[in-house]
């Protein structure tokens, strides 16, 4: 990746805006909504590269396979376009789950719930996500079809926001 001219490649990957996260947190105060956060474990290895990338194998591949040209099809750590390709892949995954990005922030996704009575939200920050839904665990299970999830749990720290429960049991950012 260090030899790639980034001006000729799309390497930008947007992330959820902090104000969006705070607004979703206000929405999540509804008593019937759950909030779960997680981290995708095998995130980047799911995305394909957008350019033809090759490497020449070294001696670690053995005498027979060393000094051979290999074509890299999946995004690998260190490639300049890695984050952008994974963002595209994650966007395609969310669309396949019937989520659509909102206009204000392309990293906040929403869809109608199964009962068609309320909305479910997912916000993404590279390979981290936060889900606000009546059935957040069901969405986690859908996500697990596509990705390995390293950690799942209620919000306590997400994107420099430190969440705690207040006296009424509501999640708040920076409450005492």
Topology:
Elements: H1 18-27, E1 34-40, E2 48-56, E3 69-74, H2 82-96, E4 100-101, E5 108-112, E6 119-125, E7 128-133, H3 136-146, E8 149-153, E9 157-158, E10 161-165, E11 171-173
Antiparallel strand pairs: 1-7, 1-8, 2-3, 4-5, 5-6, 6-7, 9-10, 10-11
Name the average pLDDT. 78
In DSSP terms, counting alpha (H) and pi (I) runs of 4 or more, how many helices? Answer: 3
Distance between the amino and carboxyl termini? 45 Å
Quantity of strands, as a count: 11
Over the alpha carbons, how many angstroms does the gyration radius reach?
Answer: 19 Å
Listing every helix as H and every strand as E from the N terminus to the C terminus, the arrangement reads: HEEEHEEEEHEEEE
The side-by-side strand order for the widest beta sheet comes to 4-5-6-7-1-8
Q: Which structural class should the secondary elements be placed in?
A: alpha+beta
Shape: elongated
Question: Which quaternary structure do these chains form?
Answer: single chain
How much strand content do the residues show? Answer: 25-35%
Low-confidence stretches: none
Query: What level of helicity do the residues show?
Result: 10-25%
Biggest sheet overview: 6 strands, antiparallel
């Amino acid at each position: 990746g260090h030899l790639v001219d980034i001006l000729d490649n799309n390497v930008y990957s947007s992330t959820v805006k902090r104000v969006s996260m705070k607004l979703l947190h206000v929405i999540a105060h509804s008593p019937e909504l759950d909030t779960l956060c997680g981290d995708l474990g095998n995130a980047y290895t799911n995305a394909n590269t957008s350019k033809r990338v090759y490497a020449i194998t070294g001696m670690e591949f053995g005498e027979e396979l060393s000094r051979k040209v290999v074509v890299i099809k999946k995004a690998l750590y260190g490639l300049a376009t890695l984050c952008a390709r994974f963002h595209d892949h994650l966007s395609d995954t969310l669309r396949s789950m019937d989520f659509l990005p909102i206009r204000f922030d392309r990293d906040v996704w929403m869809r109608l719930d199964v009962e068609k009575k309320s909305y479910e939200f997912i916000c993404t920050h590279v390979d981290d996500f936060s889900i606000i839904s009546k059935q957040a665990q069901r969405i986690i299970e859908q996500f697990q079809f596509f990705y390995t999830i390293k950690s799942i749990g209620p919000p306590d720290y997400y994107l420099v926001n430190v969440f705690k429960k207040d006296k009424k049991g509501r999640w708040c950012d920076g409450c005492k």
